Amino acid sequence: MNTSSTENSNLLIAGASTRAAAASAxxxxxxxxxxxxxxxxxxxxxxxxxxxxxxxxxxxPLLDQLPAMNWIYTGALENQPELIERIQQKHHLLGCGxxxxxxARDPFYLEQLLSGNQIESAACLPANTMPADPENxxxxxVQSSAGQGIHSLDLNSPPLLDTQSHYLQRYQAGxxxxxxxxxxxQAVILVGLASQFSGNPLLQAARFQFCGGVTLAPIPPVFRxxxxxxxxxxxxxxxxxxxxxxxxIWSPDQGERFWFTEVNPRYTAxxxxxELQYRVPLLDWHKTACHAFESSQSEAPAIDxxxxxxxxxxxxxxQISKGILYSREERSAPDLSDRLTIxxxxxxxxxxxxxxxxxxxxAGTPFCSVYGTGPDQKASLEMLEIRIREYYSLLxxxxxxxxxxxxxxxxxxxxxxxxxxxxxxxx
Length: 427
Hints:
This protein has helices spanning 19-27, 41-46, 60-64, 81-87, 98-104, 107-113, 221-238, 271-278, 282-293, 300-313, 377-394, 400-404, 408-412; strands spanning 10-15, 31-36, 48-51, 70-73, 92-93, 120-121, 124-126, 137-141, 151-152, 166-170, 175-183, 188-198, 210-215, 242-251, 257-264, 319-326, 331-332, 351-352, 360-361, 366-374. The chain has 427 residues and is an alpha+beta fold. It has 3 domains: 3-93, Rossmann fold (3-Layer(aba) Sandwich), CATH 3.40.50.20; 98-122 and 172-427, ATP-grasp fold, B domain (D-amino Acid Aminotransferase, Chain A, domain 1, 2-Layer Sandwich); 123-170, no CATH class. The longest helix has 18 residues, at 221-238.
């Protein structure tokens, strides 16, 4: 489509949860229009909100009535390329379209693409295969997001006949990490690295369920070359544009060995942590990168972004953590209006994704997000733990963490015994 008709300050954002991306849009000087599943209080304060339902026919006609504008998606819309194709008939996509997604969402293509790299993909098999050591394999949905639907195999697991919907991936012991990149035509820039919370009992998340993370800045120098090679290989091999994330497993008992598990070809749930940490409007640079693919721009945008990012990295940086609180049982959302504060653009909030009072929170779904900050990961996570307990008390949930006496280090920080050279200041 002709992009001249979309050169305005509106940005359409579609996905299950769009609040973080909407806040990023504001930092980039854009006005967010959000198609969102939850419609939380803080999102309604900063954006025009259209309710997203399972039945796309309920809300797609509303998008056709809007003036043409740029748009992005959040999780898990990458699993619906036909919907992306439908929306971009009217609105101009800034990001990865269906042609890119057919590569980025193919685990067997990605395994082949990364073969021989410093960071290779964990081995994959078709779902109708029964490996000799099933206890070392995971069954994963092809259309997965946030760790939903992943389970371990065992000797009693029957082979799945549907190889289109699931696949097997070898389980790699280690610590889950998340890397963020931004792809320009001339270069792929590594933005940041975070420890990723997955299936954390402190947050009442199911096994493998994504539930937050904490920034790891500065990135240990021994990691940089391998991560940079990974991002470049994925961006070039899948024709990725702008922001994208990678899920990794770090196996420190194998030195600096990483395993790649998945690419998220979009704005990710931890993008806001890097943006708040560096005080750099990442969606503005995402927009610049995507437009650069559509023009004959020089290398200047990529160079300018990397220069600004490296300058920000040299400043004293807060470590920022985010926990996504899940509800173990069905609950009714309490009145959180007194917790609703919209502060400056780059101020880390106490909490976000706050449901409207009386909203039903089904068992196993998110209640809200809370944040912690500090000069190092330890201080950040100590603050985060306090807020986790405080907000669960508002939900009147008898948390597993309270019953079992979890502390922030055991529950949130898995690296306590690792060498100081990786994460200075944590002791």
